[in-house]
């Protein structure tokens, strides 16, 4: 993943020097592209560390200082069910962690801010600094589902966020990774995964969301899965929201954002928010499958995305993704359409990959993975703190969307949790 340290929008072409393509025009009908984007398997899982295998990595040449972490995680089924927003109750969710269905092993190594990360490329030693955010690379990743016959090798990067949460000094972390090579039922699939949670010598604890494009239907199912077997929730004082973003229909347009000189700096995207019930677990035959069921509209969203389609600055391949960043405002309303409050998140780290939609030759599409802190809340969400991850796929001309957001919220009083 080359050029992962660059946060600015690449490209200096002006609107006057180039004819802008219509991002909303239809290469294929909007409804067809939306359907193809939705042919994906979602694995919304909860990561818990295997403490015996996880540990800090120290460099004797750096004075025995920590330079990374050996991450060994157990991935559990994770049910996050949003209650309908209301003026009386606001927005709440139940969070239920279930049995283990997968494991992931990798090394998370701290890197210089401008380090061009690539698979197999060892970074120079960088000492852990709890006074500031730092970038890290996720090396030698191998994720295994079920009995070990299905899984993938992955690679990605992330950022640490030192924070005081519920009176504790913690090291938060968020990351985005790419499915590099799949095996078993993951073979030949493209996918993106995102993390948000806490990092310590014990390992990583928190949210892991994987989206795998699955037009052949080898991973997803419309049938019922076996019932989740709940276990004790390992993160007191934290609540998770998950929800879906998509355009209302083809009439909801995306606009270019330009600076005072007329240069394109990004996109202004509007979409509706919907509840989404996703599960990943064994079916009646014991095979790991993913299911998804759309829920009601619960709000709307606007995003200012720093991403220049004309001059992206990278080819968008798995080894050289396109950087992007976004600023997202999620507004939630009750059944009568009355606003209950809004949440703003600064998605300052993002990676973009080209995506081929089978059955639609010539249709441009992209995978996005990003993350960042929650920076503001209004109304019911006043004072909210936490992290956001974004795992999205989009079409270009037409600009159809299938986005998936996870919010990890500091919630010591249980204000956002269904009791």
Describe the structure.
The protein has one domain (15-410). It is mostly beta strands. It has 1 helix and 18 strands. The strands form 2 sheets. Strands 1-3-4-5-6-7-8-9 form an 8-stranded antiparallel beta barrel. It has an 8-stranded antiparallel barrel with strand order 10-12-13-14-15-16-17-18. The relative contact order is 0.21. The chain is globular and about 60 Å long.
Topology:
Layout: H1 30-37, E1 40-49, E2 55-59, E3 65-82, E4 93-111, E5 135-145, E6 150-165, E7 168-183, E8 191-200, E9 203-213, E10 238-246, E11 255-258, E12 264-282, E13 288-306, E14 322-333, E15 339-355, E16 364-379, E17 386-396, E18 401-410
- The secondary structure category is mainly beta
Strand residue percentage: over 45%
Order of helices and strands: HEEEEEEEEEEEEEEEEEE
Strand order of the largest sheet: 1-3-4-5-6-7-8-9
Distance between the termini: 42 Å
Low-confidence stretches: 1-18
With helices defined by DSSP (H or I, 4 residues minimum), what is the helix count?
Answer: 1
Shape: globular
Mean pLDDT level: 91
- How much helix, percentage-wise, in residues? under 10%
* Extended strand count: 18
Overall number of structural domains: 1
Q: Biggest sheet, in brief?
A: 8 strands, antiparallel, barrel
Rg, please?
A: 20 Å
């Amino acid at each position: 993943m080359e050029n992962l340290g660059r946060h600015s929008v690449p490209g200096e072409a002006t609107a006057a020097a180039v004819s802008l393509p219509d991002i909303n025009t239809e290469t294929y009908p909007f409804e067809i592209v939306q359907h193809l984007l939705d042919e994906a398997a979602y694995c919304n899982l909860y990561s818990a560390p295997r403490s015996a295998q996880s540990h800090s990595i120290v460099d004797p040449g750096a004075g025995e200082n920590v330079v990374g972490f050996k991450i060994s995680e157990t991935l559990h089924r994770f049910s996050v069910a949003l209650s309908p927003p209301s003026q009386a109750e606001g927005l709440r969710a139940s969070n239920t962690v279930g049995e283990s269905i997968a494991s992931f092993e990798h090394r998370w190594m701290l890197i210089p801010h401008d380090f061009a990360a690539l698979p197999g490329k060892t970074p120079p030693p960088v000492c852990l600094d709890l006074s500031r955010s730092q970038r890290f690379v996720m090396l030698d990743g191998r994720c295994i589902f079920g009995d070990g016959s299905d899984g993938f090798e992955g690679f990605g990067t992330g950022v640490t966020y030192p924070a005081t949460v519920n009176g504790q000094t913690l090291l938060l972390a968020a990351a985005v990774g790419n499915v590099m090579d799949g095996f078993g039922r993951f073979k030949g699939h493209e996918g993106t995964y995102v993390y948000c949670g806490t990092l310590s010598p014990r390992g990583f604890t928190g949210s892991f969301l994987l989206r795998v494009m699955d037009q052949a239907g080898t991973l997803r199912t419309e049938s019922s899965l076996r019932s989740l077997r709940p276990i004790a929730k390992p993160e007191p004082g934290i609540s998770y929201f998950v929800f879906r973003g998509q355009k209302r229909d083809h009439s909801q347009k995306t606009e270019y954002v330009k600076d005072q000189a007329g240069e394109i700096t990004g996109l202004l995207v509007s979409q509706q928010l919907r509840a989404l019930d996703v599960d990943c677990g064994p079916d009646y035959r014991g095979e790991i499958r993913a299911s998804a069921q759309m829920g009601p509209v619960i709000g709307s969203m606007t995003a200012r995305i720093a991403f220049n389609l004309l001059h992206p600055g990278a080819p968008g391949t798995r080894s050289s993704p396109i950087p992007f960043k976004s600023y997202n405002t999620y507004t939630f309303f009750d059944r009568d359409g009355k606003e209950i409050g809004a949440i703003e998140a600064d998605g300052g780290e993002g990676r973009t990959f080209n995506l081929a939609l089978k059955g639609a030759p010539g249709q441009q599409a992209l995978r996005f993975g990003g993350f960042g802190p929650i920076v503001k809340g209004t109304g019911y969400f006043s004072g909210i703190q936490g992290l956001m991850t974004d795992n999205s796929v989009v079409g270009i001309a037409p600009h159809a969307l299938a986005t998936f957001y996870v919010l990890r919220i500091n919630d010591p009083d249980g204000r956002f949790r269904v009791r």
